[in-house]
Design goal:
Blueprint (H helix, E strand, L loop, with lengths): L51 E5 L3 E13 L1 E10 L4 E7 L4 E8 L2 E8 L10 E6 L9 E8 L2 E6 L2 E6 L7 E9 L17 E9 L2 E2 H6 L5 E4 L2 E2 L10 E3 L5 E5 L7 E9 L4 E7 L6 E7 L2 E8 L2 E8 L9 E16 L2 E14 L4 E4 L20 E8 L2 E2 L2 H5 L5 E3 L1 E3 L18 E4 L4 E4 L5 E2 L5 E2 L5 H5 L6 E5 L10 E6 L7 E4 L7 E3 L8 E4 L6 H10 L2 E11 L13 E4 L5 E2 L13 H5 L19 E7 L9 E4 L8 E6 L2 E4 L7 E4 L6 E3 L7 E9 L5 E7 L4 E8 L2 E7 L5 E6 L10 E8 L2 E6 L5 E4 L14 E3 L11 E8 L2 E2 L2 H5 L5 E3 L5 H4 L8 E5 L2 E5 L5 E2 L5 E2 L1 E4 L4 E5 L3 H6 L4 H7 L2 E2 L1 E9 L5 E8 L4 E6 L4 E7 L7 E6 ...
Parallel strand pairs: 74-80
Antiparallel strand pairs: 1-12, 1-15, 2-11, 2-14, 3-8, 3-12, 4-5, 4-11, 5-6, 6-7, 8-9, 9-10, 12-13, 16-26, 16-29, 17-25, 17-28, 18-23, 18-26, 19-20, 19-25, 20-21, 21-22, 23-24, 26-27, 30-31, 32-33, 34-35, 35-36, 36-45, 37-44, 38-43, 39-42, 39-44, 39-45, 40-41, 40-43, 46-57, 46-59, 47-56, ...
Helix pairs in contact: 12-13
Length: 1180
C-alpha cells in the first residue's frame, strides 16, 4: 500500500481480511523521492493470550490419558506453529485396532492422515489422507484447526478448509495411552523417534478444550516432556533476501586467492531459469557461472565467450522449496552438491586453475547484464536466498542492508516474499496448476474445458445446440451445466426427425431379461446403470421438454400390478427413489397398464394384460412419459415361482428431446422495462452468455451492483459490445467492435468471462478480446443488489429487443416465467428464421415456431432436419419409376392440382434438373421426361463413358443432341449431374468439372409434360432415338440419389409417398444410403458451344450433329493414326477387361437376387473400393 507523502496527511488502509498477530512488521518497498525517511503508524487491535513452546527437533510433549485408551466420536484440535524446517511431525496418536491420527509437515505442506480403524487389520481401505497449505516453513505463524464428528472431518489451515469423510465402518477414534505433539516416540526406547521431529514453535495447543502447553508449563502429571522443550519462542538469526524484479542483484566482495574457492547458499524459486551466481575469476582467467535452466542446476566456466567446462545436476529445483548448493573448486577440479546429498554431487576437470575472484554477483547483473564484471546467460533470478557463505565465511546480510558491505539493487532484505499462487487453486474442473514467480497457469488438457482457469466448457450443453450449429446425428459430448461442476458426458444425438432432436442415453441392460423363481419373499431385482451419473441425468431430464422410456413386461402365468385385487407383484423405481405402481403407456397414480387406461385389456376385470394370468405369452408394453420419474433405475419382479410361470422384461434407453433453455426468450418493448433476479454470485470466476437481436443502436443487457463493485454488459454502439466490471482495482472494460452491424434484427451471441487472471469478451465468430488482471490486485467480485436484465437500476439506457438463453455460470435464468409477471416485457421472441434460415439447405423452407424453427423439405430432393440427407435408392434390372402428370385435356377442364396445372397447363421455358448416380452398366438411361406433344428430354450414359443429352422440343425440327465425354463415369463411384435450361441456353455440369454452356438450335419451349421416368421406359414410344432405345434395353441398374426436376422430387415421392402421389414403381427398387458421398457442387468457368456446329474441344463437350468432315487430306492421316490406335486399344482393353470381370461377377449376383439388394450393394461398393486402389486411368 502507499504511505503518506508529507508530515501532515494521514493515509487510511483497511485490510481485506482480519488477522491475528502479536507483531506487525512493515517492509518499505520504496522511499518518498521528495522527502526524508520517516513513518508514523497507528494500529487498532485487541488483547491476546499466548502459550508458547519451542521444540529443538529432538523433543516432544506427550499428553497421557487418565484411562488406558480414549474413544471419542467428536474431537477438536487447534494450534499455531512456525518453523524454518519443511518436514516434521506435529501430532500423532494411535490405537491397537488400526485407529490413528497423524499431522505431519512434508515439503512445507501439512498432511493429515486419519483412520477410524477397520475390521481387516493392515489395510489401507479405511485411511484418509488430506494435504493443505504451502510454504509453511517461512517462519510465520500458521493456524490449524481439526474438527471431527463421527466420520465427517473439517481440516482448516490458515482459513482454507477442506471437508471430507473417513472411510470404513466405524465412527469412533480409539487412541491408546497418549497423544504426542512434536514427534512420534519409539515405545521402550527413551529419546527415540520414528520420524523427523518438529523443529520450531507451537502456540495455544488445544485438544478437546485442554490447553496442552499450559498443562506442561504447570508440570501437570498428564503431560510428559521428552527432550528439551522451552516455553518461549526465539527468533532464528537467519536473514533471507528476495530478488523481486529483473533489475535485482546482490554484489558481495571477495578476495583473490590461489588455493581455490568455496561457495554455498540456499535458494528457492518457482521460475525454471535464473542466474544464481556470476563471478570473474582471478587475473581474468574466465567467468564462473551458476544458473538454473529448465529446473536444473548448470555450472559453466567460460573465457572469451568460449565455454570450457559444463556441469549439470539436479531436477525440478524450481518447486518452491529451499535447496542448498555447495560449490568447491581447487586447482583444475570443481564439484557441485545439491541439498547435501552426496549422490547429487557432480564433478568436472577444468582446463584452467580455479582461483577466487574479487566480486560475486548473486541473482543478476547491474545494468541488465551490461557489466564487464558480470555475465548472465539467462534471466534474472526471481526468488529468495539465504545462508550465503564465501570461502567458508558467512555473509552478514544485515551489513548489506545498512550499506556497509557490498552493493545491491531492488532487494528485499530480511524477508522471503515467495508466494504459492496455486494456493488456493483457482484452476477449475481438475485443472493442474503450475506457477512462476509472478503468475500461475492452468493445464486444461483432456478435461473438456478451456480458458485461463479451465472454466469454460468446450462442448455444447445439449443435442439441440449441436443441431442448430448444423451438426447431424452422431455421438457428441454434452456439458449440461456448462461451466458448472458437472463434467461432459458422451450421448447419442438423433437428429433424423423433421423438427425434433433426441438425446439417447443407454444403460447396462437393454436386452430382454428372463426371470424365473421369484416370489414376494424372494423378489428378483434388476438394477440399471446408465452411461451418465444421476446428477447428469437430472440435468438432462430437467432441461428437456419431453422424456420417455419404453418398458415392456412379457409374461406367461406371471401377474404384474395385480390391481384392483391385491398388492402389486411388480414395480419400478425412478430417480426420485420411490416405488411406482403404474406401467408403460399409463400415467402416475393410475395404477394401470396401457390397456387398462384404454380399456382394451384381454380380461376386462384387470388393468393389465399380464394380470389375466394366462398360460399363453402376452405382454404389457408402453412408454413411460412422466419425466419427473425418469429414468428407471430398478425393476422388481415377484411372481415367477409357480409352475410354468415365466416373465421377461425389457427397458429401452432414455430418450429426451428439446432444450427448454436454448429457446427461453423474452422481448423488451420499452427502454424502462427490465427483469430482475437474485444477486449474481461469481466471486472468483463468472461467465455470462446469451443471444440477442435488436434494431436499437445501444442499450444495457444486464447489470449487477455492489457497494463499489459492479458488473455490466451493454451494447455501446451498433457495432460495439462492452463488458465492464470493478472488483476493487478500479473500473475495467473489455470492448469488442464487430465487422458487421449488430442491430440488424438478427440473433447474435455474446459471451463474457471474468476470472482472477483475465477478462474476455466473445461476440459471434469475432476474435476474442482479452484483458489481463493485475498480478497482485483484488480478485473477489462482491455484489449485493438485484441482477437487472434488459436495463439498469436507474432505469436508463434500457435494452430494446430480444434476449434468449441467458446463462450465468452454467445456470439458465428462466426469462419467460419472469416476463409473465413483469410489465413491458413479453415472453418469447418471433423471427428465428431470419437468423437460422440458412441452415435449411437444398431448397428447404424455414418454418417459424414459438420455440425455434424447423425446415420444410417438401419441395427438396433431400430430407432430414436441415434437408441435407440424400434420398437414394437402388434400382435393379428393368426397374421403372414413373411420375405421371394429369392429362392435358382433363386439366383444361379441372385444374385443381397446383403442381399438375403448373406442368401440364403451362409451357416451360426453363428446367432445373439435379441428380446423382452410381453405376457400372453402360448404356444406361439415367433420366427421361416426355410431353403430350411427343417432346422429350433424355440423359444417357453411353458405352464409351460419354454423357448423351438429347433435347427434342419440336417434332418438326431436328433433335438437339449433346455429347459430353468424361473419363470413368461408369466406375461405380458417385457422380453428380446438373442440367439447367433457360429458353435456348443450356448449362451442364458433371461433378466438379467446369460448368458448360450450350445454345439450342431447336425450339425453346417444353409443352404439356406427360411423365417423368427413372429407369426403364415401359411404354411404347415411336419417336425414341436409337441411342435411347439401346440404353432402354435394361434401363438403369445402380444407385440414383436426390433427383429433382424443378419442384418435383420423383424419387423421394416414390419412396415416401407412393400411395398418395401420382407415381408408379415397377420392378425392384429399394431405399439405400448409396448416395451419402455426393460430390459437392462446384462452380467453374463457362464454355459456350452451339449444337448447330462442331466447335469446341472433344474432352469438354462436343455436338454430334453435322460432325462429318469431307476433307480428303485429313482422311489419310486419320487412317494412319487409327491403325496405330487400334493396336494400342487391343492391349489396353485386355487389361481393363481383367479388372472389370471380377466387378461384373459381383454385379451379376445382385441381378440374380434383388431381395438382398442392400447387402449386394454393400458388397459391390466394397469391391469397387478394392478395384479403385489398383485401377489405372486410360484415355484414348
Amino acid at each position: 500500500f502507499f504511505g503518506n507523502t508529507n508530515a501532515d496527511s494521514v493515509v487510511h488502509y483497511k485490510l481485506q481480511h482480519s488477522i491475528k498477530a502479536r507483531f506487525l512488521r512493515f517492509v518499505p518497498l520504496d522511499w518518498n523521492p521528495n522527502g526524508r525517511i520517516g513513518m508514523r503508524i497507528e494500529v487498532y487491535g485487541c488483547t491476546y493470550r499466548s502459550d508458547v513452546a519451542e521444540f529443538d527437533g529432538t523433543s516432544a510433549l506427550l499428553y497421557r490419558f487418565d484411562q488406558k485408551s480414549m474413544s471419542t466420536v467428536k474431537d477438536t484440535i487447534s494450534l499455531k506453529f512456525k518453523t524454518l524446517q519443511s518436514v516434521g511431525i506435529l501430532l500423532h496418536g494411535e490405537g491397537q485396532e488400526g485407529d490413528y491420527i497423524t499431522l505431519e509437515l512434508m515439503k512445507g505442506k501439512l498432511s493429515l492422515l486419519i483412520s477410524l480403524g477397520d475390521d481387516k487389520l493392515h489395510t489401507t481401505s479405511s485411511h484418509a489422507n488430506v494435504t493443505l497449505g504451502s510454504l509453511l516453513d517461512d517462519q510465520h505463524w500458521h493456524s490449524i484447526l481439526i474438527e471431527r464428528v463421527n466420520k465427517q472431518i473439517n481440516f482448516t489451515v490458515d482459513k482454507h478448509t477442506h471437508q471430507f469423510q473417513t472411510k470404513g465402518e466405524f465412527d469412533y477414534l480409539d487412541i491408546d495411552y497418549e497423544l504426542s505433539f512434536g514427534g512420534i516416540p519409539v515405545p521402550g526406547k527413551p529419546g527415540g523417534f520414528l520420524k523427523k521431529n518438529f523443529h520450531g514453535c507451537f502456540e495455544n495447543v488445544y485438544y478437546n478444550r485442554m490447553n496442552i502447553i499450559d498443562l506442561a508449563k504447570r508440570h501437570k502429571p498428564q503431560i510428559h516432556i521428552v527432550g528439551n522443550v522451552t516455553f518461549a519462542c526465539s527468533e532464528p538469526k537467519i536473514v533471507p533476501i528476495t530478488f523481486v524484479s529483473t533489475s535485482s542483484y546482490l554484489m558481495l566482495p571477495g578476495r583473490y586467492q590461489k588455493n581455490g574457492l568455496s561457495i554455498s547458499f540456499q535458494f528457492r524459486t518457482w521460475n525454471k531459469a535464473g542466474l544464481l551466481l556470476s563471478s570473474k575469476l582471478y587475473q581474468e582467467s574466465g567467468f564462473l557461472l551458476l544458473y538454473l535452466t529448465d529446473g536444473r542446476l548448470k555450472m559453466t566456466l567460460q573465457k572469451s565467450e568460449r565455454i570450457l567446462t559444463v556441469i549439470s545436476t539436479g531436477t525440478g529445483l524450481n518447486n518452491g522449496q529451499w535447496h542448498t548448493v555447495s560449490l568447491i573448486g581447487k586447482r583444475n577440479r570443481v564439484s557441485i552438491t545439491i541439498d547435501d546429498d552426496a549422490g547429487s554431487t557432480a564433478h568436472a576437470t577444468t582446463q584452467m586453475q580455479m582461483y577466487s575472484g574479487s566480486n560475486y554477483y548473486f541473482g543478476g547483473c547491474p545494468g541488465n547484464g551490461n557489466d564487464s564484471r558480470c555475465m548472465n546467460p539467462v534471466d534474472t533470478l526471481q526468488g529468495c536466498m539465504r545462508l550465503i557463505n564465501i570461502n567458508n565465511h558467512a555473509v552478514n546480510l544485515i551489513l548489506v542492508q545498512q550499506g556497509l558491505l557490498g552493493n545491491f539493487s531492488d532487494l528485499q532484505i530480511d524477508l522471503c516474499s515467495i508466494r504459492d499462487r496455486c494456493l488456493p487453486n483457482y484452476c477449475e474442473h481438475g485443472g493442474e496448476c503450475s506457477q512462476s514467480w509472478n503468475a500461475f497457469y492452468c493445464n486444461c488438457t483432456n478435461l473438456g474445458y478451456t480458458g485461463a482457469t479451465c472454466h469454460t466448457s468446450i462442448y455444447e450443453q445439449s443435442c439441440e445446440a449441436y443441431k442448430h450449429k448444423g451438426n447431424t446425428s452422431g455421438f457428441y459430448y454434452i456439458d449440461s451445466d456448462g461451466s458448472g461442476p458437472l463434467g461432459p458426458i458422451l450421448v447419442y444425438c438423433n437428429m433424423t426427425a423433421q423438427d425434433k432432436t433426441w438425446t439417447v442415453i443407454q444403460h447396462n441392460s437393454t436386452e430382454l431379461t428372463k426371470v424365473k423363481g421369484s416370489n414376494r419373499e424372494n423378489p428378483h431385482s434388476v438394477f440399471y446403470k446408465y452411461t451418465a451419473s444421476l446428477d447428469h441425468l437430472d440435468a438432462i431430464v430437467n432441461h428437456a421438454e419431453h422424456c420417455e422410456q419404453e418398458l415392456a413386461y412379457h409374461c406367461k402365468k406371471s401377474r404384474l400390478l395385480n390391481f384392483p385385487d391385491e398388492l402389486p407383484f411388480s414395480w419400478w423405481v425412478g430417480r426420485t427413489s420411490e416405488k411406482q405402481m403404474y406401467w408403460g403407456g399409463s400415467l402416475p397414480g393410475v395404477k394401470k397398464c396401457a390397456c387398462g387406461l384404454e380399456e382394451n385389456c384381454i380380461d376386462s376385470r384387470h388393468y393389465c394384460n399380464c394380470d389375466a394370468d394366462k398360460k399363453e405369452w402376452t405382454n404389457d408394453t408402453g412408454f413411460l412419459l412422466y419425466k419427473e420419474h425418469l429414468p428407471v433405475t430398478q425393476i422388481v419382479i415377484s411372481d415367477t415361482s409357480r409352475p410354468n410361470s415365466e416373465a421377461a422384461i425389457k427397458l429401452g434407453p432414455l430418450h429426451c428431446r428439446g432444450d427448454r433453455n436454448f429457446w427461453n426468450a423474452v422481448s423488451f418493448n420499452t427502454e424502462a422495462s427490465y427483469l430482475h433476479f437474485p444477486t449474481f454470485h461469481g466471486e472468483f470466476s463468472a461467465d455470462i452468455s446469451f443471444f440477442f437481436k435488436t434494431m436499437a443502436s445501444s442499450g444495457v443487457f444486464l447489470e449487477n451492483l455492489g457497494i463499489k463493485d459492479f458488473i455490466r454488459i451493454e451494447l455501446q454502439s451498433p457495432k460495439e459490445v462492452a463488458f465492464s466490471f470493478d472488483v476493487g482495482n478500479g473500473p475495467c472494460e473489455v470492448s469488442l467492435k464487430s465487422h458487421t452491424y449488430l442491430n440488424d434484427n438478427q440473433w447474435h451471441y455474446v459471451k463474457a468471462e471474468r476470472n482472477v487472471k483475465e477478462a474476455s469478451l466473445h461476440v459471434d465468430q469475432q476474435p476474442q478480446r482479452t484483458k489481463a488482471a493485475p498480478s497482485d490486485g483484488h480478485i473477489r467480485l462482491q455484489l449485493n443488489s438485484q441482477l437487472f436484465v434488459g436495463g439498469t437500476a436507474s432505469r436508463q439506457k434500457g435494452f430494446l429487443g430480444c434476449m434468449r438463453a441467458l446463462q450465468l455460470n452454467g445456470i439458465t435464468l428462466d426469462l419467460e416465467e419472469r416476463a409473465k409477471i413483469t410489465p413491458g416485457v413479453e415472453p418469447g421472441c418471433p423471427g428465428h428464421c431470419s437468423s437460422y434460415g440458412n441452415l435449411c439447405q437444398n431448397g428447404g423452407k424455414c418454418i417459424e415456431k414459438h420455440n425455434g424453427f424447423s425446415c420444410d423439405c417438401t419441395f427438396s430432393a433431400y430430407s432430414g432436419p436441415f434437408c441435407k440427407k440424400e434420398v437414394s435408392a437402388y434400382l435393379g434390372t428393368g426397374a421403372s419409376v414413373v411420375y405421371a402428370f394429369q392429362e392435358y385435356y382433363t386439366l383444361a377442364i379441372n385444374s385443381s392440382t397446383p403442381a399438375a396445372s403448373f406442368y401440364a397447363g403451362m409451357t416451360l421455358s426453363r428446367e432445373d434438373i439435379h441428380f446423382s448416380f452410381r453405376t457400372i452398366h453402360t448404356p444406361s438411361l439415367l433420366f427421361y421426361i416426355n410431353s403430350y406433344y411427343e417432346e422429350y428430354l433424355a440423359v444417357i450414359l453411353c458405352k464409351n463413358d460419354s454423357m448423351y443429352i438429347q433435347y427434342h422440343l419440336d417434332k418438326q425440327l431436328e433433335k438437339g443432341t449433346l455429347q459430353i465425354r468424361y473419363k470413368n463415369l461408369a466406375n461405380g463411384q458417385l457422380h453428380s449431374m446438373k442440367i439447367n435450361r433457360q429458353e435456348g441456353e443450356l448449362y451442364v455440369q458433371v461433378d466438379h468439372f467446369s460448368r458448360l454452356k450450350y445454345s439450342l438450335s431447336s425450339d425453346t419451349e417444353f409443352n404439356a409434360i406427360k411423365s417423368l421416368i427413372l429407369g426403364r421406359i415401359l411404354a411404347e414410344y415411336s419417336d425414341l432415338d436409337q441411342e435411347v432405345l439401346k440404353a432402354n434395353s435394361q434401363g438403369f441398374v445402380g444407385c440414383l440419389s436426390s433427383v429433382q426436376f424443378n419442384n418435383i422430387t420423383p424419387l423421394k415421392t416414390a419412396l415416401y409417398h407412393p400411395s398418395s402421389a401420382p407415381v408408379t414403381v415397377q420392378g425392384h427398387m429399394v431405399e439405400s444410403n448409396c448416395g451419402i458421398s455426393t460430390v459437392a457442387d462446384s462452380t467453374g468457368s463457362e464454355t459456350t458451344h452451339s449444337l448447330a456446329d462442331n466447335s469446341g474441344p472433344i474432352d469438354e463437350g462436343e455436338p454430334l450433329a453435322n460432325a462429318i468432315r469431307s476433307d480428303s487430306a485429313v482422311i489419310g492421316g486419320v487412317i494412319a493414326v487409327v491403325i496405330f490406335v487400334i493396336l494400342c486399344i487391343i492391349a489396353i482393353t485386355v487389361r481393363i477387361y481383367q479388372q472389370k470381370s471380377t466387378y461384373k461377377e459381383s454385379e451379376a449376383k445382385v441381378t440374380e437376387n434383388d431381395a438382398s439388394t442392400d447387402a449386394a450393394l454393400k458388397n459391390e461398393f466394397s469391391l469397387q473400393n478394392t478395384i479403385t486402389e489398383n485401377q489405372k486411368e486410360h484415355y484414348f
